[in-house]
Amino acid sequence: MLTGRRKHFNLIIFICSLHVIFVALPVAGFSLKGCRISRGVAICSESELTAVPHDIPRTVKGIDLKRNKISKLQASDFRDFPVLTELNLQQNKISEIGKGTFSNLISLKTLVLTANRLHKLGDDVFHGLGNLTELRIKANRIKIVTPTTFKSLSSLKRLDISDNYLHPIAKVYEVIQHMPHLQQLNIQKNQLATFYSYVLANRSIELKSLDISQNPIVVFRITANVFPNLKSLTLANLQKTKHKLIWDVRNKTMVGQVSTLDISGLKHAPLDIITKLLQSFNSSLNTLRMNQIPHVPALIRISCTIPTLSKLQLQLNKLRVVRSDLFQLCVNIAEIDLNKNDIESIDDNSFTSLPRLRIVSLSTNKLLSVPTATRNLPRLLELDLSSNKIDTLKCDDFANLTNLRKLYLHQNEISALKDCVFRDLTRLEILKLQSNKISKFNKAFENTLPNLKTLYLHSNALTAIKNGEFSGMWSLQNLSLQINHIKTLEKECFNGLTNLTVIILQTNAITAETLANNSFNLLKNLRRLDLSNNHIQFKNSSPLASPPFSQLSHLNTLALTSQHKRCKGYLPSNLLQGLTNLLDLDIRNMQLISLPKDLLSHTPRLERLDVSANDISYLSSDLFAPIPNLTGLYISNIRLWSLGFLKRANLSKVEFLQMRKNQFSVISEDVIRSLPSLVYLDLEWNSFTCDCDNSWFLKWVQDNNQTQVFNAYDFLCNYPEDLQGMKLLELDIQSCSVDTGFICFTCTTCLIILTLVTSFTYHFLKGQLTYAYYIFSAWLFDTKKRNKQVPNQYDAFVSYNTLDEPWVCRELLPKLEGEQGWRLCLHHRDFQPGRPIIENITDAIYGSKKTICVISRRYLNSEWCSREMQVASFRLFDEQKDVLILVFLEEIPTYLLSPYYRMRKLLKKQTYLSWPRAGEHTEVFWEKLRQALMTGEGPADERLQLALVDRP
Questions:
Q1: Which residue of 218, 473, 713, 788 has the fewest CB atoms within a 10 Å radius of its CB?
Q2: Mean pLDDT for the chain?
Q3: Is 154 in a helix, a strand, or coil?
């Protein structure tokens, strides 16, 4: 029994504990301080943060904290980010990393600590980063690295520890000794004066790229094959002093896999040392960079003797003039980079000795025309002549370049084109002519360039596109014409561009009248059309006779942003007719004062709509009815006073909603509920009211974990005046609504207590409860009968237990009915069959002058006897009449009567007779009973005292 009670009690305590846990557990909000979430990355850059925010969701895959003021990292900063793969802490003020800071970042792949103030990396500072593959700690002040600093980085492949204060070379060994899979090591700009291979002896290193540039190295000695996999070696800008460089590579096979070498900036190294250096790689080298280096002609001749060399970079060497013998020995060179050399002229035969030449870069020089040297190179694939001073293109400038794929002529001074200039470029795919002064094409693109796919003509002086000017470019896919002065688009100006997918006409002078020519309807496969920043204006919203885009059924993106208008504007209701596959519509800043309700009826697949920066002030919900797939809506700065349209519009798929700089001050619950898919909400710079009208919104901002409210912690109060400038989320809203959480807590607590009390009461007071139930039942039926005037059919109703029936039949019945003549009511004889028992009992009691209760232990345990007693006692107390006679057939101790509170009370006040005490003098017993039956029904305090023995 005790064990059962203990189990019951423990269960109650467990339920209480669960209740406390669930009520007290906080829900993480999705409104971040100084951060926003974009594609699974928490962007917290440039937010003046002094510590890592603790409200970043634990499910992000990246955290960008660059350019803040964080000075210390500690273990609590990144305690629970199980899927974080990228962490960027660049450009902070971090000088200390606490123990265990990264211990829980088990999925981290990239860690960036560049440009901080670290001067020491202590023991196991990167503990836990066993899956890290890239570590960048460039531009710190690191002097001290302990032997176990990088012990945990067993998976690291790329390490950039450049621009620090590491020295001597033994420190490099401490850095990489625990990184068996390291492939790229950047240790440039430290204080390494020597580089010895012996410190790395007996190590298996997978290193493929090593950058030790900008170190004051005077001795470079490799006497063991420690770099069997090294492919790229950067030695640029070694020797900041004039000490002679000692280059000691005992065996070429020790660097026999190096294919890319950079020796740029070796200004103080004598020619013989550089020659010796180059000879160490004469069996594998493919790419050589010799930028900003003396002895260029001699070094070119030496390097070109390397039979495997194919790419030669010679930037910033101030060559000015390229002589015909400069590349005479470079028969194997396929790519030459001569950018930024101030070249003014190139001898005609400079490249004739390079039969394998594929790429020539002559960008950012001082050439006045296309050099003759670049002609007649039938294998040339790419020619870069950008950023020179070329003003004219002649017909034979690109003669015989029939294999050329890429031609860059941008940022020159070309003013006109000739019809013959591109005639030999039959395989050209990319042509860049932007940022020149071109005003006319002169049929340069008619019947030429059949394989051109991309043409850049932006930032020129074009004013018109005439019919057939691109007729020979049937392969063109991307056409860039922005930032010109184009006003005229003739009807068939785009004829032949059947494969064009993108055309950019931003920032020109195109008008609505220009669109009326329907020149775009020839571009059947167009996917993107940008007409932003032009002069397109419509006088009203009446339908156009001939919609300008009616044939562009494949168009996905249309931009009409920022039109230069002299007055407020409209959009024709059928402007978008034909755009059945449009996904993105941008009509920002068009000075529109309204939008036709059926404007979007032609774009059923629209997913993104931007109507920001207009003077609309009201949006109809009908506008959005035809676009059920909308996911992004931008309605900033349109002077909206109400958001009621959101409740009525079908925007169930909207995920991104931007509503900056409007006039509404309250965000209702209905508005938010109407956007069930919303994941990003931008409400910056609105005039919020700081009162209870916004209480639900404030609570939602802080508690919801689906929608990110951008920069919510910087929202300011505008009304009332005494709260202007206060942060919206600092408003105390506890008085605005009932604390449902507290109510739930209170109700649940009360329920638990009630359950506990009920359980204990039922367990320990089961008998008393049963007794109380019978009392209530009796009272209920007594209430129905007590006011009825029921005639007395019997002198007494006898209430007894069935097991006491022999005494009733042999003793009581013969004496009272047979001898004394009383008419008794007995349940086994006089109850009406078919009626409910409780009704028979009640009618019998109220239909009799008296009720005789024959009491025994069996009587006390009987349900129906107990009910008969209750009804009789209710009649006694309610009518205040002497109607109850108690007859005890046996002695019953007082303690057995304790559960029967009503009977104990009766015994203290009421007449009773005891058959056992009568003994042999039964005549006295029957006489007392007769007298009791004869007494009237006056008040109980006037009744005849018949007790044979007084009871307490």
A1: 788
A2: 86
A3: coil
